[in-house]
Sequence to fold (292 residues):
Amino acid sequence: MSPVRRPARFAVLAAVSLLTLAVGCAPTDDNDDEPSASDATASCEKADLPLKKAGTLTIGTDSPAYEPWFVDDDPSNGKGYESAVAYAIADQLGFAKDDVVWEAVPFNTSYQPGEKSFDFDINQISITEERAKAVTFSEPYYKAAQAIVALESSPYAKATSFADLKDAQFGAQVGTTSLTAIDQIAPAKQERVYDDTNQATKALEVGQIDVLVMDLPSAFYTTAAVLSKPGTIVGQFQPDTGQSEEFGLLLQKGSELVTCLDEAIGALREDGTLADLEKEWLSQTTGVPELS
Fold:
């Protein structure tokens, strides 16, 4: 989760290339099911879509669903960046709001291999080659940096570099890009891992950890509305690839629906809808110092 990379990589052809690369990293016996450019001739008419339930778009996300991605822990209200994006995609595919059904899917089980009960999952899931061995990703709908959160009273609150944080006790949510990103900081202490964001923020409040790593939009919400003690964003940083983290829709491995989802995301990017939704729900993600 992390945590939201490559400029001008948003055309459908580029998304197909990414999926092809992911398949190349997967076991040989899984490769035959992955959509390719030659498979992209299926109709994207609503009646022709390969859905779990005909006429219904089933979308997964975690529970609880946190701001600014969702509002009031209710994905179905259309509020919050990911809820709004999901309904915009549904509209592109021809679904009315009443045709969309939400399903609770724990974050750290969503990208495990196997049959999925949803058409796609939207839950700040970072696109990685490792995960793409087990699931299929759409092209990215958002890119974001990682951020480090500390209490204002912490001696690490004014850190300006990774070196300043070397002796800090780090923490992050299990299964996230944020957890993986701690490795590039190379802290002296083993990081502590938590099942969800709520547990991780509580750990920060009670002093189990000194700093918490999470994606930048979540860091803004955490410091503004979640922490019971004054918190601050120490800084942001990019993964050690030098590129921003990208979030994609997650589908069952080999799902042919990905072609139509890529087209929908491309259309929303082209007409400015994604930018407008980002401005509406994630407008605070600038002005944070860079750490290295």
